[in-house]
Amino acid sequence: MARPRIKDVARHAGVSEKTVSNVINDYAHVSDRTRQVVREAIEHLGYRVNLAGRHLRKGRTGIIALVVPELDIPYFAELARHVIREAEERSLTVLIHQSGADRDHELAALAGFGSTFVDGIILSPLALTADDLRDRTGLPPTVLLGELLEEGADHVAIDNESAAREATRHLIGLGRRTILAVGGRDDSGLGTAQARTRGYRAALAEAGLAYDPAALLPVDSFRMPDGARAVARALARGARPDALLCLNDQLALGALRALHEHGLSVPGDVAVIGFDDVEGGRFSVPTLSTVAPDKAAVAKVAVQLLQHRIEEATAPDGAGSGVQAQDRIVAHRLVLRESTQGHERR
């Protein structure tokens, strides 16, 4: 059986092909009655919009790329789900690419993978520098996630420094005074870890607590084994923390294991807080206190920004070109669970 076409829908509904097109594109000037008749005809005939044709007529493919460091990090998996859902509502298809936090892979993504099949890119960079982003002439529209590397790029993130300051203040408010930062980095970089470390240090300074560089526990990556190893090494060398600020929930979950293996209770001996509010932290024992970014809002804003840039880039008259880049900060909240609750020290 031949696939129904727009003229078949028009004939069945008793309207023009232009009217059917107006209904499909949700134009406002179509009457409610006509809109209903056309939609009933579409459903009856099983008509499906040819999205590929529609996009190509506009000089687009309808495909965007989401580039993240690692897909098996729960935060990025959860974020990807939100991005896909948001894109589907705009008739966009999402190509997901894993960069491995490798600069060459991130540069290839930034260049559209050397092809024209991607209309735009949502990129969470870990290895790129500001210099990599400055001259993007002829490259696909891009929205960055995480810390801002270049003021000329659209960017969506939470305020990581403020969030880490709030989390550390909470630990201090519990009477904790020896707070280690698992995954902390005290260099001059512009990454998320550096921003969260700055927030940690700011909270210590506000409370009149001395900052000790040895309180930063470096990690090779932000996975559970790295958190467990970092905390185990610190305990083995004689560290006696009463709290841990972990720069993501994976590190925090690994830290919980290391504390358990060393006979330390949470939160009785050591309070623990993480970042990202991933599902695993809601089922750990104890459940994990965390900084929860609004992942749905991150996805929504990123896809909206990218769609606007794609429309500008493909507009026949160049309308919208040269519009100033947007730096959008999305809400976060502190979610308090068992790993910090009920054990204040005075």
Key descriptive features of the protein:
6-stranded parallel β-sheet; 346 residues; alpha/beta; 40% helix; elongated; single chain; 12 helices; 6-stranded mixed β-sheet
Tell me about this structure.
By secondary structure, the protein is of the alpha/beta class. It is 40% helix and 15% strand. The chain has a 6-stranded parallel sheet, sandwiched between helices. The protein has a 6-stranded mixed sheet with strand order 7-6-8-9-10-12, with helices on both faces. α9 links the parallel β6 and β7. The termini are far apart. The relative contact order is 0.12. The mean pLDDT is 88.
Write the layout of secondary structure elements.
Blueprint (H helix, E strand, L loop, with lengths): L5 H8 L3 H8 L7 H14 L5 H7 L5 E6 L5 H15 L4 E6 L4 H8 L9 E4 L6 H5 L7 E4 L8 E4 L2 H14 L5 E4 L9 H15 L9 E2 L6 H13 L6 E4 L2 H13 L9 E5 L13 E5 L1 H20 L12 E3 L2 E4 L11
Parallel strand pairs: 1-2, 1-3, 3-4, 4-5, 5-11, 6-7, 6-8, 8-9, 9-10
Antiparallel strand pairs: 10-12
Helix pairs in contact: 1-2, 1-3, 2-3, 5-12, 8-9, 10-11
